Amino acid sequence: IKSVAAQQNVTLTCPRSFGVKDLLFWLRIISGHQPEFLGGTYAFDLNKVTQTTHFTTKQGPGTFILHINHTQINDTGLYYCIRTSKTNMTFLRGVLLKVKGPQSSISSIIQAPPSAAVHPGESVSLQCSVLSDSEKKTCSEDYRVHWFRAGSHQSHPSFIYTHGDNVECGYSSQKCFYNFSKKVNVSDAGTYYCAVAACGEVMFGNGTNVDIKGKDEASLTYSAPTFSRRKVTKAERGNTHSAKKETIYSDVRFHN
Fold this sequence. Notes:
Elements: E1 2-5, E2 10-15, E3 23-29, E4 36-42, E5 49-51, E6 55-60, E7 63-68, E8 77-85, E9 88-100, E10 106-112, E11 115-118, E12 123-132, E13 144-150, E14 158-162, E15 170-171, E16 175-183, E17 190-198, E18 201-204, E19 208-212, H1 234-237, H2 240-246
Parallel strand pairs: 1-9, 11-19
Antiparallel strand pairs: 2-7, 3-4, 3-8, 5-6, 6-7, 8-9, 10-12, 12-16, 13-14, 13-17, 15-16, 17-18, 17-19
């Protein structure tokens, strides 16, 4: 296995043993494609160079060389050096070449706070911290910061804001802060994500869950009357008005 960064030059070699009728070939196999012939030569010494803008094959002392000029991401694949002799074919060398694309200096994205609870009409303030490591950076592309919201009933996050060039950003040697503030209503509930686009990639933060609380509903008090019955004296039996007046609530319960 050989790993290189994009735009680097790569040289692969395989042994070349002398045989008058032997032939050597470099082939490439990329997933989803037919094998590709890159160049060939005889086993005996031959001062011949096969060259394109991207590949060069030639003989070296006891070797057969494949040179790849300015590697690209799509050069990732299996490279085989093959020797044929009459009806026999021998694999002399196989190399898995991995070409890595340009890397951003961003090491992590942190959002704060992890959650927030606000009422309709209030403002919520979110912060996105972008941590960088300048030693990792292999591309010169400046990054852009975007905000997305994923609602509970949405199948895809919705775009809500992009920071412009004039955004107030507090810089240190390895950290930059992006602040986002919004006055919310009930429909603004959801998870807010900070996304950073750099070097052809999009990296997301851990998200902030924003909960919109409704106005406090008036608490209701429920009362359940319980009636007690007592014996009525002979003097009160004919006095219906007096009996009604004596009836009271004996049990009242409150529910919050």
